[in-house]
Design goal:
Elements: E1 9-10, E2 16-21, E3 26-31, E4 40-44, E5 48-53, E6 56-63, H1 65-68
Parallel strand pairs: 1-6
Antiparallel strand pairs: 2-3, 3-6, 4-5, 5-6
C-alpha cells in the first residue's frame, strides 16, 4: 500500500516567536511576522499541529507539552 505524503517549506526561520500557555499546556511557534492567517491546519497523531499557508509552514503548535515530560501543570 502506498502512502501519499505532502511536502511543506519552512521559511522565515530568522523570525521566530515562541509562546507557552500554561493554562492549556500548549507551545506555539510562529515563523515570520505572525500576522498571517493559515489556509490549512494539520493535526498529526502525536498532538502536534501545523499551520500552513501557500505550502509553507507558518506555525507549529505542540499540545500537552509538559505532560510529555511527566510534569504536572
Amino acid at each position: 500500500m502506498s502512502e501519499s505524503r505532502r511536502v511543506f517549506v519552512l521559511e522565515n526561520i530568522d523570525k521566530v516567536l515562541v509562546d507557552y500557555d500554561r493554562n492549556t499546556d500548549t507551545l506555539n511557534i510562529v515563523f515570520g511576522e505572525g500576522s498571517e492567517e493559515a489556509e490549512e491546519a494539520i493535526l498529526v497523531e502525536n498532538d502536534v499541529g501545523y499551520r500552513i499557508k501557500d505550502n509553507k509552514v507558518i506555525g507549529i503548535t505542540i499540545y500537552n507539552l509538559l505532560k510529555r515530560f511527566g510534569i504536572e501543570v
